Amino acid sequence: MNVMTTLGHVYLVGAGPGDPDLLTVKALRLIEAADVVVHDRLVSDAILEHVRPGAQMINVGKLPNHHPFPQANINALLVSLAGRHQNVVRLKGGDPYMFGRGSEEVGVLREAGISYTVVPGITAAQGIAAATGAPLTHRGLATGVRFVTGHCRAGHDLDLDWDGLADPDTTLVFYMGRGHAAEISEKLRASGLAAEMPVMLVADGTRETESRHFTTLERLAETAAKLEKSRPVLIVIGRVVDLADDLALRAFDLCEQVRHG
């Protein structure tokens, strides 16, 4: 192991789904005390306002199919910063270990001999389920839940166990799936999931700009195409969607489907 002498410590901190009130007490304390904060695109401005004046902030955010700061560069940056600062916060949307590549960054820090701490955060699925009233599990509707990545390398199909996912008794939550909405709809229906299975798409979940869009598995791609590409979107598929609070948007979306159907 290549051991690096450093006084620095890196904290991989989960920022939650966007609402600053959903930060953990520990996360808030570390953000306020950090010398430097390396943050993703999904970390909301309301959370970044808690970074203390004078602290350095570095945005390493990625957009779909646009990665101006590759992961290898982020890894090297964390190692470099730990050699120059005592408290380095790597701030990630949601939870660092939920599709956040946190374990890869931990591996690099460990190899460099840099001390680190992982601080969990509320992942988007948990925050959005609570905010919308659509539970991830519910007796008689869903006996389990699966968190699934809806993202892959450009030009490649999603390599998923579609037959295993097409279970009507399981709630499916797709992260970063808007760009593959058509494939998700097609593959799940081909594997036996009903075309009329309820679907909810939530953009900017738990934030003031949050919007909820209700549709069916058959019309998932059509609904996803209407959403702005710059907004993070979570896709929830399953019967629990029928328990969501916002019936007004549900009625609006269904009317739009009928009008253009």
Number of strands: 10
Category by helix and strand content? alpha/beta
Task: Indicate how many domains the architecture comprises.
Answer: 2
Rg computed from alpha carbons, rounded to a whole number of angstroms = 20 Å
Straight-line N-to-C gap: 61 Å
Protein architecture, described:
The chain is α/β, with parallel strands linked by helices and 261 residues long. The chain has two domains: 9-119, Tetrapyrrole methylase, N-terminal domain (Cobalt-precorrin-4 Transmethylase, domain 1); 124-260, Tetrapyrrole methylase, C-terminal domain (Methyltransferase, Cobalt-precorrin-4 Transmethylase, Domain 2, 2-Layer Sandwich), CATH 3.30.950. It is 30% helix and 21% strand. Strand 2, helix 2 (45-48) and strand 3 form a beta-alpha-beta unit.
Short recap of the structure:
The protein contains nine helices and ten strands. It is of the alpha/beta class.
For this entry, give a set of tags:
261 residues; alpha/beta; Cobalt-precorrin-4 Transmethylase, domain 1; Methyltransferase, Cobalt-precorrin-4 Transmethylase, Domain 2; 2 domains; 5-stranded parallel sheet; 5-stranded mixed sheet; 9 helices; 10 strands; elongated
SSE topology:
Elements: E1 9-14, H1 25-33, E2 36-39, H2 45-48, E3 56-59, H3 71-82, E4 87-92, H4 102-111, E5 115-119, H5 124-132, E6 144-149, H6 162-165, E7 170-175, H7 181-190, E8 198-203, E9 211-216, H8 220-224, E10 233-237, H9 247-260
Parallel strand pairs: 1-4, 1-5, 2-3, 2-4, 6-7
Antiparallel strand pairs: 7-10, 8-9, 8-10
Helix pairs in contact: 3-4
